[in-house]
């Protein structure tokens, strides 16, 4: 089982202007837990991941992945598709 | 599993708010500060425990004075421990989220392992003393003291471990967001 779940929660949360506290309240978690997930220090359960995805009205794979995310700029404007994009740009959160 | 806040009582809500009170955040914002608080709490606990046990053998008022002083320091330090762990060990499970419940389990498992080792060492120590000819009369006071010490360790070790495992919170990167109420 993979111990490393990548996510772009911080990017999406910033883009939607949702605070950690607001997201935490919406999904029934502690606001610190949102920070732990964003930093890759905690992998959410399927239940929590689905709740977070539902809050943003996104498919869960748009937020969480077993593979590193490509930088959003690459996805929008084209660019290297080999998955070697910068981790920081993608909100990748290695464990 | 996320929290099931719908089942919370007024007491749960009050406790949750108290344990997440932001006013004490600045006292334990860094790892160094948290370590100091834990060290101070361990010292206060040791002095208070000694102050409770010593009067059984010594008829001096000083152990009681030490107990009183250490107790006065112990109470706010315990509050800081609970504040830095956000009530991880004091709140009911139904107001904790899945990460907090997992962390609580990890903390209890670590504390169980350590306290089991200490209890086994104490048992071996008393067994060795008995083998060397110490009678039950001679061992009564050490037995009572060790038992009391182990009880205190069993009670407080999870708090110390949980406090030492707390990580620094990131700087607020949400200029658009209102400050966290907690």
TrEMBL record, chain A:
GO terms for molecular function: DNA binding. CDD domains: HTH_XRE. It comes from the Bacteria. Residues 75-95 are annotated as: Disordered. Residues 9-63 form the HTH cro/C1-type domain. Signal peptide: none annotated. InterPro entries: Cro/C1-type_HTH (IPR001387), Lambda_DNA-bd_dom_sf (IPR010982). It holds the Pfam family HTH_3. This is Transcriptional regulator.
From TrEMBL, chain B:
Keywords: Membrane, Transmembrane, Transmembrane helix. It comes from the Bacteria. The chain crosses the membrane at residues 37-58, 64-89, 110-132, 138-157. This is Uncharacterized protein.
